[in-house]
Design brief:
The complex is a heterodimer. Chain A has a domain at 59-237: MetI-like (MetI-like fold), CATH 1.10.3720. By secondary structure, chain A is mainly alpha-helical. Chain A is built from eleven helices and no strands. Chain A has helices at residues 3-30, 46-53, 55-88, 95-107, 110-128, 136-161, 165-172, 177-206, 209-214, 222-230, 236-264. In chain A, helix 1 crosses helix 11 and helix 3 runs parallel beside helix 6 (136-161). Chain B has one domain (70-297): MetI-like (MetI-like fold, Orthogonal Bundle), CATH 1.10.3720. The longest helix of chain B is centred in the N-terminal third of the chain and has 34 residues, at 74-107. In chain B, helix 7 (165-190) packs antiparallel against helix 10 (219-234), helix 8 packs antiparallel against helix 9 and helix 12 packs across helix 13 (265-297). Classes of the chains: A mainly alpha, B mainly alpha. Chains A and B meet through helix 1, helix 3, helix 4, helix 5 and helix 6 of A and helix 1, helix 3, helix 4, helix 5 and helix 10 of B.
């Protein structure tokens, strides 16, 4: 082993340790019996039990999942349309503004997006009376807006990489453009749409800042509830919650990776 | 693209453009117009707490007073400067750690490479908030790091790690490191290793080969990675709040406090507009590099 690869190995080990040690420590401490989350008081699974009896957490989880499913679905619909428009529709009036608006929500700091949307909802309520109460609908709208940008980018790059000959062939055979979209284009970009939906779902479940701005009294999403608890310091039931999420994500990713590897191996 | 223009098809084309277009106009562009308008108003005791853009006689009543206030008040300029400084430090540290990591991943055997890459992406799927929270347990006065050091006998009193700028920087680097590694990896992976070997065969030192070959070829990835870290780090709210403690001055926190604690909506809007102005150059730069990258890939 030469000097360079030893240096590489050291940096990589340090980097991965940096990424994973905090997560491992949370999982270890979630089995800590002590009320004081940082002192070791023996092995116990009591915090997991307490988690499932905590109605507040379950309610927040339900609201978060409801928002994530709705906003991911809306974002996939609008995002796919936008991706199609940008990749296949050529020039049209206002295209520059459109592509600018599509990519901007991805790079906008969350505090700005959140504040501006809230001020817009307040102004809208003054003018029209809607939204009377902020909560599920306003958070869903906010999440749809930034998620559709990601879906649009994924769909657009998939369409750019795919050649148009299938669509052209269908068109030459007399297929109407609208039918070609539904019979040829959509099935071909389905993997990109699924990837976009999953990404939107995760982004929505993960968002704290924007949801805090556009939410109203009585609507607390899971990240908002977690934030209000961890503001006060380390808490053992949040350790348990974090461990469940870490385990679920790791399991899902491991299964996805193994299936993918098995499918690609023969080639 | 088609000559079989049918009424339904034309309708579909219009609908596919109009639906997302309208959505973005209403929920993305209009909010910016409103935030700009409110930043020019005065705070008043009313619901909503800002003055109208027109006075009783229908004359425009807007002023730049919020901006003058922000620029003249030392507290705000210091906060902006500190945010820029913290975001720059974060970006530099991410680059210093991320570059060798991305290089190592790109040079690994293909089977190992996909696993290493997966391990970089995996934390993305775990809640951002909980990943920041994990550091609270590590850096606490009675946390894992302090307990370990005391047990090892390095220190006898717990170190104050939490609620410092150091803790904020660690949290920022931790959260944004994958944003640096992924674009860097993408450009390093495309690089032809033979070029480096050739340079060394022709007598270039390892350092020389790095600066003359590897670095220029990795430049697009470096620029994209740095911007992807710098831009969100500037507006960060959660990390300085949880790890930086109550006095940590960060522009995202000031905006939040101005809005919720002081209920000064016009001032909070002006804070947001100035933050946006500071980020215009990095954001435009990022979109340019990404557009160029897209052209190259196509």
């Amino acid at each position: 082993m030469n000097k360079r690869s030893r240096f590489m190995l050291t940096v990589l080990s340090f980097g991965y340790a940096f990424l994973y040690l905090p997560l491992i420590s949370v999982v270890v401490y979630s089995f800590n019996d002590s009320q004081l989350a940082t002192l070791w008081g023996g092995f116990s699974t009591r915090w997991y039990g307490e988690l499932f009896r905590n109605q507040q957490i379950l309610d927040a989880l339900f609201l978060s999942v409801k928002i994530a499913v709705t906003s991911a679905t809306l974002a996939t619909i609008f995002g796919t349309m936008s991706g199609l428009v940008l990749a296949r529709f050529g020039r049209f009036r206002g295209r520059t503004l459109f592509s600018g608006m599509i990519s901007s929500p991805m790079v906008m700091p969350e505090v700005i997006t959140g504040l501006s949307l809230l001020l817009m909802f307040v102004a809208l309520q003054q003018l029209t009376g809607w939204p009377g109460q902020r909560g599920f609908s306003t958070i869903t709208i906010a999440h749809t807006t930034f998620s559709m940008a990601y879906v649009a980018v994924i769909v657009q790059s998939r369409l750019a990489a795919m050649d148009e000959s299938f669509e052209e062939a269908a068109m030459d055979l007399g297929g109407r453009p609208l039918r070609v979209v539904f019979d040829i284009t959509l099935p071909l970009i389905a993997p990109a749409m699924i990837a976009g939906w999953l990404l939107s779902f995760t982004l929505s479940l993960d968002d704290l800042v924007i949801a805090s701005f556009v939410s109203g009294p009585g609507s607390t999403t899971l990240p908002m509830l977690i934030f209000s608890k961890v503001k006060l310091g380390v808490s053992p039931d949040i350790n348990a919650l974090a461990s469940i999420i870490i385990a679920a994500v790791s399991l899902g990713v491991a299964i996805a990776w193994l299936t993918m590897r098995r499918n690609t191996k023969p080639t | 693209m088609s000559n079989g223009i049918n009424k339904n098809d034309e309708l579909w084309r219009r609908f596919a453009i109009a639906a997302p277009y309208l959505w973005l106009l209403v929920f993305f562009l209009a909010p910016f117009a409103i935030i700009l308008k409110i930043s020019l108003a005065d705070p008043i005791l009313a619901q909503p707490p800002y003055s109208s853009s027109f006075d009783g006689d229908g004359r425009p009543a807007m002023s730049l007073s919020n901006y003058f206030f922000l620029l003249s008040d030392k507290l705000y300029s210091i906060t902006y400067l500190r945010s820029v400084a913290m975001a720059s430090v974060t970006t530099t540290l991410c680059l210093m750690l991320g570059f060798p990591m991305a290089y190592g991943i790109a040079r690994a055997k293909p089977a190992t490479r996909s696993l290493l890459l997966l391990l970089i992406v995996l934390p993305f799927w775990i809640s951002f908030l909980l990943r920041v929270y994990a550091w609270m347990g590590l850096m606490n006065n009675h946390g894992v790091i302090n307990n370990l050091f005391i047990w090892l006998g390095v220190i006898d009193q717990p170190l104050q790690i939490m609620y410092t700028d150091f803790a904020t920087a660690v949290g920022l680097v931790y959260s944004y490191l994958p944003f640096m590694i992924l674009p860097l990896y993408a450009s390093l992976e495309r690089m032809d290793l033979d070029l480096v070997d050739a340079a060394q065969d022709l007598g270039a030192t390892r350092t020389r080969a790095f600066w003359d070959i590897t670095w220029p070829l990795a430049k697009p990835g470096t620029i994209a990675g740095c911007l992807l870290v710098f831009i969100p780090a500037m507006g960060e709210y959660v990390i300085p709040y949880l790890l930086g403690g109550p006095d940590s001055l960060f522009i995202g926190r000031v905006l939040f406090d101005e809005f919720y604690s002081n209920r000064d909506w016009p001032l909070a809007s002006a804070v947001a507009i100035i933050l946006l102005l500071l980020l215009v150059v990095p954001i435009v730069l990022l979109q340019r590099t990404q557009a160029k990258d897209g052209e190259q890939a196509a």
